[in-house]
Amino acid sequence: MARGKIGLALGGGVARGWAHIGVLKALEKAGIRPEVVAGTSIGAVAGGCYVGGKIDALEEFARSLTRRKVFGFLDFNLAGSGLISGDRLNELLNQHLGHQHFETLERKFVAVATEIGTGHEVWLSRGRLVDAMRASYALPGIFRPVKLDGRWLFDGAIVNPIPVSVCRALGATVVIAVNLQHDVFGKGTVLTDNHVDAMDNVIDLPTNGNETKGGALRLLHRQFFGQGTDEPGISTVMMEAFNITQDRIARSRLAGDPPDFTIAPRLGRFGLFDFHRADELIALGVAATERALEDIQQTVLAET
After folding, report:
1. Residue 264 CA to its chain's centroid (Å)
2. Cα–Cα distance between 162 and 65 in angstroms, integer?
3. Active site amino acids
4. What pTM was computed for the model?
5. 221 CB contacts (<8 Å, ≥6 apart)?
6. pLDDT tens digit string along 103-116?
7. Are 220 and 79 a contacting pair, CB within 8 Å?
């Protein structure tokens, strides 16, 4: 029998995506190296770093994050089409992957994005790796959309939260899906007023000497994360809406095109902005992979 081609579909999940690092490390340790990788949103970040040979650097970065460092990367934007410009994150990605292009990768990789205006699902598989990753994780309303080849793109999880179909289209005969959302529906992130007050003392909100601008940025920061009342902040409202949409679409698409295996870390207690909890998230990714390894290995061996 001809050797089967293994595909890995990495789903979206914002901060919960650090669990992808644990999944990838555990698969590698077990000798399972997917020839095809498709990622959506944070899954595109993890997948891009993996195929680009920078998964260790991503792990080091994730484990180094504290709550203060996380907020330091949120460069709030008072104008434009996103609350966060994303320039600081883009600079970091460029440092490690700016020279990488799809055409030079040893394995097939696709980052899934959504075209604004048409709702088309766009499979990014050429050009600069970093540009495709940015388009795939550009949460609508949070990060600025990205223009590639004349099209404005944002988060791929809107149309394909767990891109099993992409792996199939690229020739994968055994597809492993990583679902970060199976037990987290309805659990958003709310920072109480106490948290916001504490962050005011440590977050560097650039004012360039303009105190009016500084006050506006702090007000935006409070509105974004909530003000300690029953009324949710902008981030919670947007993330809950995004979660509902992603959950419904994922269920529908996986029912129509199910993976051969699903790795589902238990992430229900983690918020969408808990980037500072990488140690726990990575460990849960490893644990979930180890639970599924025996069945995966048996199928992979049968395909060789």
Report:
1. 15
2. 26
3. 41, 155
4. 0.82
5. 76, 196, 199, 200, 203, 205
6. 999 999 999 999 99
7. no
